[in-house]
Amino acid sequence: MAIDLNSRFKFEHVKSFSDGEMIFPEGDQGRELYIIQEGRVVIRKKSPVGDIELARFERGDFFGDMALLQGIPRFASAYALG
User: Fold this and answer.
1) Is the pTM higher than 0.70?
2) β-strand 34-35 against 62-63: which pairing, if any?
3) What's the pLDDT tens digit per position in 60-74?
4) Residue 5 gets which letter from DSSP?
5) Region of 71 on the Ramachandran plot (φ > 0 left; ψ -120 to 50 alpha; else beta)
């Protein structure tokens, strides 16, 4: 059995975001998993009293796994920091 090691990167894309730019909005139907190569990301959830910061991620961390694995809309929004 032969395995093409390059095929595992078939769906990998590198994308850059500006500081403060939204990566995905709350309720988004996307199924992407993100791995941070540089900079940071903040996850925010809308609430009646304003946005609530749920988490911060940095280089080497990943996010977006809940929507990918559970097949549900995004629970919160993600924004680039730096």
Assistant:
1) yes
2) antiparallel
3) 999 998 887 888 899
4) G
5) left
Give the position of tokens 């796994």. Answer: 65
Q: Where are the beta strands (DSSP E) in the chain?
A: 22-24, 34-35, 40-45, 52-58, 62-63, 77-81
- Both structure tokens of 41: 């990301």
The answer to whether 44 and 77 are in contact (CB under 8 A) is yes
Residue 34's DSSP bridge partners are 63
DSSP 8-state class, residue 68: H
- By the 8 A CB rule, do 75 and 27 touch? no
Region of residue 5 (left: phi > 0; alpha: psi -120 to 50; beta: else) = alpha
